[in-house]
Amino acid sequence: MSYTLGIDTSTTATKAVLVDRDGVVAGVAAATYGAESPHPLWSEQDPDLWWDAAQAAIRDVLAGTGASGSDVDAVGLTGQMHGLVALDAAGTPLRPAILWNDQRTQAECDEIRRIVGSERLVQITGNDALTGFTAPKIVWMRNHEPELYRAVRHVLLPKDFVRLRLTGVYACDRAGGGGTLLFDYAQRTWSPEILDALDIPAEWMPPTYEGPEATGVVTPEAATATGLRPGTPVVAGGGDQAASAVGTGAVGPGVVTASLGTSGVVFAATAGPAIDPRGRVHAFPHAVPGRWHMMGVTLAAAGSLAWLHAALAPDSSFDELSSLAGETSRGGDGLVFLPYLSGERTPHPDPLARGAFVGLTTRHELGHLVRAVMEGVAMSLRDALDVMVDAGVTRPDQIRITGGGAKSRVWRRILADVLAADVATVNTTEGAAFGAALLAAVGAGWFNSVDEGAAAWVRVINTTPSSADALYYDELHAVYRSLYPALRPAMHRLGEL
Length: 497
Description:
The protein is of the alpha+beta class and 497 residues long. The protein has a domain of 247 residues: ATPase, nucleotide binding domain (Nucleotidyltransferase, domain 5). Helix 2 crosses helix 4, helix 12 packs across helix 13 and helix 13 crosses helix 14. The radius of gyration is 22 Å and the shape is globular. 57% of the residues are buried.
């Protein structure tokens, strides 16, 4: 047997997925870790946690399947986007990585807009300056940690730190690079204009590659640590959302995906560079060579349900909570939830946005709260889809769904009706790691293109059609959309207090 290996360095775990030539997942292993929040709005991780977890996951998946490192033809990498890994000249982390969901950099975002100009920034990078991106984190480090900043010689994204430990090579995929706010979106490379304007040395930034391109090979030291064969090619891969889209077959125009992970994402591939002039949705290069994509993000999707579970029903399973929601009428008897538990990105780039239940009465029980959370997340994803359609994406008849929340039949039904589209699941649930393995398969020569690989490996297995409830949710969405503008002043005042 021969396999490719996809490695996903996420916020909570590193997963290793072994896939055979037929696209069948032979084995999955994961090693978990935590994040730290030393101050309000901060989110950090020790980069060595990712490498330790990668070693453990790779060894476990090989052992669990009886495969050897010699059976792996290529490795693909994916993982959380936007994080800042600041390294010294020896490649040693200077501080904990600042993660994608860190919200400390609002002042730096304002500074970047002043320096570059808001319109020019979107024209070059495809995006507005948001707290999640890498560039504001670099500027924050210069403003607040000048001694450490002076020692920086390399800047990497989280998955690329794992690449460095695997191969000894500094490199980045172009989909991930697009999420730094330092990329020329149309040219698919670092922007000299942005780097110069922000006084960030160009030599800090690694060479960039298309998703299936080889960036290096596994070193003898990494082979000893992981069980892989020395010399195994490691392809560029992609940021988690781009790789997940590859894993669901969203590799060209016409296929739209939605993800219900910790965060929620609506993703549409485009044939060429396309942006929302107001920067309300993200626009990045795709992990597919010569393709781009638009993406809307809500920061707390399944994360909202996880919060509700931990706070109010820790002894109940998620299946039990989903059943309660299914027994509750649409609209939760007049209850609406705003899922802004971690601030928000699309369409409200506001780190001080806050979650809210609106319409609570004494008749509301746990099932109403669960359904309101599911509906609120779906409403937020609809906000993102509506902006993408305004920017030129064709409104889809079908949306492919991934992530842990996609396991809920009730949530799939809600999404189909709120988004007014059929919601489909595909034959693999391994998301970004599977997509990284597919990109590795293209790099290994198993397929001539990502399109060919996706056609061979990905198929729709279940569809939840939109129903007559879609008309009801049109009206409820209008109420939902009115709430953020009404509550924003109070949200910001509470943040100041």
